[in-house]
Structure formats: structure tokens, C-alpha cells
Amino acid sequence: MINKILNSSGFKRISIFVLIALVLYAMQSMINLILLTFIFTFLMDRLVQFIERKIPLNRKLIVVTSYACIVGLLSYGLVMYLPMIAGEITALIKQLTAFYTSKHDNIFLNYVVKRIEEIQISSYLEQGFQFVLKYFTDISKITLQVLLALLMSLFFLLEKPRLIEFTKKFKTSKIAPFYAEIEFFAQKFVRTFGKVIEAQLIIAVVNCTLTTISLWLLDFPQLGGLSIMIFILGLIPVAGVIISLIPLVIIAYSIGGMMKVLYVGIAIMIIHGVEAYILNPNLMSSKTNLPVFYTFIVLIFSEHFFGIWGLIIGIPVFVFLLDVLEVTETKTDAKKT
Q1: 286-293: long-range contacts at Cβ-Cβ below 8 A with a sequence spacing of 24 or more?
Q2: How far apart are the first and last CA of the chain?
């Protein structure tokens, strides 16, 4: 009986999955580089495929040109706008801290601040701002990781056909059973994790653009710092909107009172409606249409184990696990949605 279980394909698949998870855990110090390389490779591959369909040019020429444009834009942004944005983020943190620590005449506002303190939302905001500041102050480290990830993804895309042919040789090697399971998980990972990350990125860009335009119309200060905050929090499903609303409401009250808070609330509701009813149905698959309770549970656990990265990759990893476990939407559920 035990031999039958040990030789079953299901046991082998689970064992290999656990082994992969342990290897990734052992390499957690390199997790930034691994994730950035995968994300850049996936997104750039999608971009190259899109350009190939529109413009019939040599693939390698498209790859090199695309990466040259990306690196050029990143370099220009760092040189021209990094000092300004870092200053705006510092001013933004000082403004939020001053508001939070000062006394207010409004009884309702004092109650809200007290409740925020009790449920420790401020600690999450502080962690988020510290994360952004840490990355801006330690820009040499993150820049090196980004450049290495871009370089590795560039080499991958330049030699993609050759890499695929070379990798197929493992099918007939002595580790063929192990390779078959790796291939299974890799295909599932690219199909779910990659596409969900792509969708989250598009949604975050659209939300950031629409929200920044709304804040500009409402005469908000520090738009550069706020835009970065909104974009990063926009990568967090559901919770990102709620967390970003707190500093926006605080700033709105500081510069314009309750009427400005009302305007911000209306703007965020409209933008969230665009995300919920237009972007999500068109970009996300049925598997990512998770109940809010599940979403928050996944985010809480993934943040605990993986930190800030967990908030961004928690839902894509969970969707990948659902796909591996073949947790699919039934016809009845599809009709309900």
C-alpha cells in the first residue's frame, strides 16, 4: 500500500512541488532578482509578441530596440525626476505625520484617528512609506537588481528559441520524470501567475493615471509622491484601494476640509467602479474573481511570510495554486456571475 502511494504520480508531483518551494525559500535572499527577472521577461515577451504581430521585423531587432527604449526611459526618469519625487515623498510623510499627531476640533475626525490607531492601519502605512523611502535611499542596490533582471531577461528573449530547444533535451535524459513535473508547474505558473501580474500592472497604471488626474484637478500637493504611492498600492488587489484612501482623505481634509474629502471619495468610487466593472472582467480570469474574505486572508498571510512582496504576489501565487489543484469555476457559478 505504501509503495503504491510512493510510486503514484500524485505523490511525485506533490514531492517535487514541495522541493521547489524549499529551494525558493532557501534562495529568499535572491527573491527580488528572481521575481523581477520573471516579471520583466514575461511582460517584455508579451510586448515583443504584440509588436511582431503589428510590424513584421526581425525578432532580435525588436527585442534589442524595446530594451534600449526601456533602459533609456528608466535612466532619464532617475536622473530628471528622482530627487524631486524623493523630496515630495518626504514632504508627504511629514504632512501625514503632523496631521496624525495633532489634535483636531472635529469629534468625528478624532474618533476616526483613534480607530485607525486601534486597528494599527497607521503601522501598515508607516511600513509602506518606509519601504518606498528605503528603496529610494538605497537606490544603488535596487538599481543593480533591476539592471541585472533586465539583462537576464534580455538574454532569455534573444535566445528564446534556442533555449526552448535546449531545454527539450531533458525530456529524454535521466531526470525525465523530474523534468516532466517541472514543465507542468512552469506552464501553469506562466499561464496564471504571469497573466495575473500583467493584469494587476495594467490596472495599477490605469488607476494611478485616473487618480493622479483627479488629484490634479482637486489641487493636491506632492502629486509625484502620491502617484508613486497610488501605483505601488494599486498592485495590491482590493486592499490597495482602501489603504491608499486613508492618506488621500487626510490630505484632502488638511487642504480643503470635509468638502474636499467628499470630492476625493466620489472620485475614488468612480475610479474603483471602472476597475471593478470594466478592467477586472476584461483582464482577470474567472479564477481571480475571489471573494473579498479570501482576498484579505491571502494578503494577510502572504504579507506575514513574504513582507511587501507578499502583498503584490500573494494573489497571483494563490491563483497559481488553484490552477494546480484544478479548482475551477462551475457552470452554476459562472451563470451566477
Answers
A1: 286/328, 286/329, 286/334, 286/337, 287/192, 287/319, 287/322, 287/323, 287/327, 287/328, 287/329, 288/196, 288/199, 288/315, 288/319, 289/329, 289/337, 290/315, 290/318, 292/238
A2: 44
- The answer to whether 295 touches 239, Cβ cutoff 8 Å, is yes
Q: What is the DSSP letter of 66?
A: H
- 11 — pLDDT class (breaks 50, 70, 90): confident
Q: What is the mean pLDDT of residues 82-103?
A: 65
Q: What is the pLDDT averaged over residues 207-216?
A: 89
Cα 61 from Cα 44, distance rounded (Å): 13
Contact 192, 313 (CB under 8 A): no
Angle at 39 between CA 188 and CA 325, to 5 degrees: 20
- In this structure, the number of other CB atoms found within 10 A of the CB of residue 102 comes to 9
Can you list the positions of beta strands (E) in 260-318?
none
Can you tell me which residue has the cell 495590491?
A: 236
* pLDDT at position 333 over 50: no
Q: What is the DSSP letter of 286?
A: G
Cell matching residue 132 = 518606498
- CA distance linking residue 320 with residue 287, whole number of Å: 9
Confidence of residue 235 (pLDDT cuts 50, 70, 90): confident
